[in-house]
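hey m, so remember when u said the tokens were messed up on ur end? i reran from scratch. heres the input so u can diff it against urs
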Amino acid sequence: MTRMKPPAWIPIVFTPLQLLGAYATGDLISRGSWINFALPGMLLIGVPSVVLMWVAWGLLSWRRPPRATRWLVAVGIILPFVCAVAAIGIARLIEFYDNARTARQLAHAQVLDLNDEPLLGTGGNPIGVRITYRVRFEDGLDDMRYQPFATLHVDSPPDNLSVHRVQVTPKASGRYERGEYRFTEEFIPSFLPRFLRFPELARSGNESDRCFSLDNDDMRRAAGDRTTQRLIVRIQTYGVEQRTARSYALADFYEGALREGAREC
């Protein structure tokens, strides 16, 4: 029996069809998303399909046309779907592994020595609250989406203080290594003027930067609230929730800001 390779026009025709089809499908799926899947779709589905198509063309040389032709056309049609299913399966397997690793790392992390103190302005007047705590990562932490961060809740009036500044020592780049890190987070009321909320405006000559942000009745009530209360600290994702050791009143932060140079405008 004479051995003949199936016609070369089949992989030649399917090569651009598979590449462009994968690219177009990825672009279509990306509509309404901030991620464009066109190029990844071509690389993960189109390119493997083309490679396997040419491999199939070589392997089917032992069959004589037209049977080899039918086989090769069927392979060209089916391969993109097979590669797509394989790519999705591999992606889900990687995601499952990453989620399991992150869950294990979070379960072994410990939050230690949660403390609070008044946050002072440059003039030594209270304008907010500083929270400090340590986190011990027994297995490190690879997914920075789950890095520790605190929220500070006020009961009266019910609200959260705004994050002013966050510092991590030692600095983490890309991941948290195995060991301990110290977190310092500063919180201030949202009614404070811009020059206190944004350090770069401290020397601003713009008078409006020194005006309190009392845009509505809720902010005005908060600025005058003299209720002394222990605030609620939550370390997100790490299951930590407790009251501050010290008590604070929002009116004290308002008066402290006045002494720092804030104005009612």
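this time it looks ok to me. The mean pLDDT is 86. if urs says something different then somethings off w ur setup not the seq
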